[in-house]
Amino acid sequence: MSAKKMLAIINAEIHTIAQKEPIQGSILVEDGKIAAVGQVEIPAEADIIDAAGASVYPGFIDPHTHLGVSEQGMGWEGRDYNEITDPVTSQLRALDAINPMEDGFREAREAGITTVMVAPGSANILGGSTAVLKTGGGQLHQRVIKENAGMKAALGENPKRVYSGQKRIPSTRMGSAALLREALVNAQNYMHKIKRAGDDPEKMPPRDLKNEALIPVLKKEVPLRMHAHRADDIATAIRIAREFDIDMTLEHASEAHLILDRVVESGFSAIVGPSMGTPGKIETQNKTLEAVKILSEAGVTVALTTDHPVLDIYQLLHAAAAVVRETGMDEYQVLRLITINAARILGVDNRVGSIEVGKDADLVIFRGHPFDYLSTVMYTIIDGDIVYPPEA
Question: With a threshold of 0.90, does the pTM exceed it?
């Protein structure tokens, strides 16, 4: 079945996320947008999905993945997430390496995950621009919600390990911080030269893509998306963000709960995870699901991530269920971590993350609760089109 111009989901238990308690009724979709929710008069021309006995949620969101740039089941041919030839590659764009046919997108749709952020890897101090896109719905350019959703940055073990092996900076945490500052200063100087040139092309500096890519960060138009696990790396990241008066999100944030006051004072959001699995590095030894609860209760805006392919993308729901089980967090609050919180952190909450009139019709219909391992996805809908099951 393929959605026409109008789609109605009837007899549903609707978890809007905009409010805690579900409502009974229908959702009317027109031209890919949510047109009405609740007690809705269904037009005769609408395609119908009868969701009796099922529940409808907004499409789930993973705000930190490497979908399409780290292709499943492939070697170097699909390994396009780290340009490990230079520790500062701010000019790169994840969008240029995404293969929308990569199998992880299918797995996302099957799990009801409709929106993801795709980022470069964390080998470099500055890895390049991230992008937010839908997991289905046409060609790549048709899926993009936000072409530049932030600048990937990294501190800690990864850059140190990669470049110490090349006998070059950064081989220490000092070197990593110094390179980040240097790149930001270079971009500041470049921006000042452009400003001084005004309308005089003769005074305009030669175009520099590395510096150009950092101007939106310096103007607070996009955040640094900072890979940082250990508490001292998180503290360094916050310190540098304050020095340059820039916005930032804390990505992974495995030990953010250990410097809770500093994180809360910063006002920065935290994308936590992957919290399941065996710690693979020294800097992840203290990762814990409890961090999600501690940060959330302290007022930090928190979302969950699989860091796909570190965890398979479908395990986003498993991770959320584990948070409920292990920490006792309220199910509704945990649902917010993979819907509206993630959307807000990505700056796309005007379009996705909750079931509200005017937002994109990205919906998932579940038989059972999504945190129940035995529950199944009946339909995944993106922009009003049924993308799972594919033959629908």
Answer: yes
